[in-house]
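pasting for the record
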Amino acid sequence: MRFIFIVSTYGDKKRAEFLRLSKSIVKQSVFSKEILVIHIIQGSSQKYFELYASHFFASKISYLAISDLGVGLSRARNIALDTIYKNKYYSSPCYLFFSDDDCFYPDNFLKIFKRIRSSKDDLDIGIAGLVMDETRSYALPYSNEIGNHTLQISRITKNISSINFGISYNEIRFDENFGINSIFNSSEEFDYVYQRIKNGTKFHYDSDLIVYHPDPKKIKTTVFTFKFFQNSIGVGAFFAKNFHLYSLYYVFLQPIFSFIKRLLLLDMKGVIISLFSIYARPYGFIKFLIFRLKKIC
């Protein structure tokens, strides 16, 4: 069994965070011979990040750095997936983990993943888990359910983030129109998991599997608001691309219900966030329809 961590970096603003991530992977020491880290380096930061490769070289973990002159998170992940295919790293059962440069893992992450995996009979499988704040004291809102269940398509936006799942390899790739530094700046993970489930991958959610990540609400309010706005546009575009009747609810009605609920609770920051969603999700939905129409024409 092989475990492949795919991480992409652009620039060197998150040097300390990348170091923390690399150390957390090295600490999966029981599985070190089975781990491969594929690091896609975009921009001019290659020399700096190669210094951190020493953590992997000092262990028995395999590390592969690939320089890419382009930009885009989905592009980087597709380069890694193509590398896995070309080198036949998938020939033995392998499981992929898409790491942010500022996330990190508990020491027993792979042990828990392997335990959950061994309890399932599915060959083509994905397992998603809980995302907790980097202080390890509370769950973050984008994947915070306690318990376990089979993941249905309608729950993708509730149980999936870009960092909280491990998945078997297949030929599906990320849509490079989605994700950071693309036309739609988010929701690449929703679309990828949606395509995988449609293709037959069985997805399970289990909160015993935990990933740590900084709480986005702790960054400057203006930065958080801008990121939330961009993410909401991406969510609207995702629901336009993968249209179901519940798409209309999540794009047009759910933000309104959320606004009313937060207003009644006097949660004024939540009210502002909901107002952005009321505008941004329909905007992303319509923007994607126009984008698709232009491609057809």
